[in-house]
Amino acid sequence: MLVRHTNGVHMKKFYDRKEELAALASLKDGTNLAVIYGRRRIGKTRLVLEHLKGLSYRYVFIPRYLSLHRFLKDLADEHDIPEFVSLKDALSHLFKTSENVFIDEFQNLKYLDASIFSNMQRMIDEMDFSGHNVNIFVADSSHSMMRDIFMEHSHPLYGRARIAMNIRPLPLKAVTDILADFGVNDFAKQIEFYAVFGGVPRYYEYLRGTDNFNEEMRRLFFTEAAPLREEGKIVLLSEFGGEFSTYLSVLDAVAHGRRALGDIAAELNQSSPTVNKYLSTLRKEYSLVRRLVPATERPDKSRRGQYVVDDNFLSFWLRFVKRYENYYEQGLDDMVYEFFRRDINSFVSRTFEEIARQTIKSNEEYERVGSWWNRRGDEIDIIALNEGRKEILFGEVKWKSRPVGWNVVEDLMKKRELVNWHKEDRRERFLMVSKSGFTKSCLERMDGEGVMHWDLEDISALLKRYMR
After folding, report:
1. What is the third-level CATH fold of 230-320?
2. Fewer C-beta within 10 Å: the chain N or C terminus?
3. What is the pLDDT of residue 4?
4. How confident is the model at residue 6, as a pLDDT?
């Protein structure tokens, strides 16, 4: 069921997350602490509440700015418990009188009582030792804070979590289900929305049940009261705090085409080792950037590594909002919208390429699937390798409004000579992927020469067959 509001659509239906729900359901008797973290808007609260459906539980939201006295009074009123004078006693009472307790925005507890995490350690250890049954769920958007609280040896709550779950974006298949329920059934439109919002479910609730992509983007980003214009800044501020400006500069450089380490360092006027430290943090701890290498090379050996922003929404925000801050300050929203209209197809094409690569990966025919490039600037959208068969697949992906002709296939075939992988004894295959299909003569030649070809209908069918 969808509930419509003036600002968009509120989701009542729960999508995907079967593995996460199964993990939460696996909690057995005893004192169990489950830690749920992930980027803002990813659906942490919704996941835990879905698990708790039909169960007895208490939900406690921890506000950032509230006095301890006011918080304890509100807690007593909301849950019909005594009004305690200490946070420790209040939480202890909840833990000992409840089957399930869900503490949302958990890290804010430290602003109410700096000693609360040490006190919680003692509470959990005592309840666990005595055999007390309670499931304590804690959620927060700050990856770094949750990591420090539960995964640092020096922290009192280290080792207490039975489950620590990093909630990742929903897969494309789940997003197409969401959009179909919102009235967006055209697969091309679904890809456009996915290119902007990725697998973050909350953003889709801002839609008004229309498949007019450009107008929805205009309302959400390119008007004076656009509800998502500041969202990228809020996401990064909530995670990086005082280091926000540094990490924003790194992400901004990557989003605008500075993809090699040396180029990023030069853009920021920083040393390569310094920038590499930030990139490593963004990649390994936050999954906000990804390091790519040509598919024919080993990641640990390649000197041709390139970085890309690995979050659809932030990539869009950096490209179309942050880039034009000065225009917004001058009230030139309409001009920025025209820049968006001019460049959006190029932006979406990157997502379409990745969807094609993921579709190939999903049928597990090839061990390595990626793209390829050289120092001269030649690029191939798809390279897939099967070492056992010495088979290589070359692919070209086009997000264009017109059908692809045979000349594009010929260009791809010429590029095969640039790739040296098992060149003397390999088996070669070719794949063309096109949003708008192919000319009749191109289809006939591809069929005659054994070139595989996918249009949007083919991709959609393969998505339903192979991908989650």
Report:
1. Arc Repressor Mutant, subunit A (1.10.10)
2. N
3. 39
4. 41
